[in-house]
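cron nightly-structures :: item 1 of 1
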Amino acid sequence: MKRLRHLLAAVAALALTATLLALGSSPAAAAPAKAAPKGYGMCKATAPGSQARRQGTGWTCAKAAPVAPVTATVTERIVRGVSEGACANGRDSDRHNYCWGERFTTWAFDTNGKEIGHSVVVAVSFARLSSSSGKWTENIAVKATEMGGIAKTVSMDLSATCSGLCTVDAPAWGGAPVELALGDEKTGNLSFTSTVTKGNYSFISPTYTSSREILEAGGVPADPATWNGHELRCDAQVGQYPGCIVMGHMANVTIRESAYGAAAIAYGWAQSNLKGGNFGTKTRPLQRNSGGKSEAAKKRRQSCTAAPDPFKKDPSVTDDSCDEFPFASSVQGGTNGSQCTEIIPRKTAGVWRVDVVRDSPHGSNAPCIRAHVPLSENKGAGGELGRAVVADRILEMEWYEVIIAP
């Protein structure tokens, strides 16, 4: 009986060996090395009996690292569609545009831990946010830039979720992975929608996930790469429609001398000559007032018509009007006019000069100016400020810079 059991065990061992050989493997190669390859990111063993194991793949590994989209060898046409300077680095942005770039490397190793193939895919994304819509689209480009060993084809998918009041319409390429040979480039998109409601705002941050497979290694996906996107803010507090911006960038209001003449010159003079308050510079920005039009009107009266020294029109200035700076619609506006330096910007033979009509009691530490400006230029600059509030999504109490341009 004992001899019979030994005989049956030998027969079973021979049958197992024959099965393994028929699958293209051997008893010694059936299990991968106990330790995962080191220095190759996230690694996992292939499943026993899987196609990948039968083909000799014991491990798949993956690593992801940011790259600079502008310098990546992918989709220059998309790069040109984004404002210059917004995407010089892997996670760059400005207030209205953002981008990201990732370099994905995937490896396949045999059951002894020896590399048998690898692939490199570069992915970049560019998005332009809208100041009049809660919807935006990321333009995606992926390119297989390197293949080695058995790797000839790699598949890749890409999906996203987002925190806050936000939904993602669908994964890139409709959820189906794209297949890339060396040098292949594919484009797609991810579309987002903010569900922010009237009077509210929401902070939103996308999170991305991507998996890659070297198909010649048995099509086993390496562990997916996950990374966080930029922090965004969408609101329905400014203007008629919702809109979105990228956080971390100060808003700005640009006042052009060519359009608003004496008003622009007056604001620029205050920025260059006075240091007693905030005049909308990068280091001393302004804040949007929280009191609305009625509060701005009160502040304007305080700066222009209140005692003890109300504004008096100058007959040498055509259609003269009182233009206060900082703006009455800012938190910093509304200082009594008697404390302001009063000026007249004049243009003679194409050259601007500024005459000081009355010095502030504070001298160069004056907290404000009161300028004699033609009414059309005064109103025009005010209108530009109102449009910038919407275009740059400047919420109440938010800081902003005033840029004086030619």
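cron nightly-structures :: done
Residues 1-29, 77-85 have pLDDT under 50 and may be disordered.
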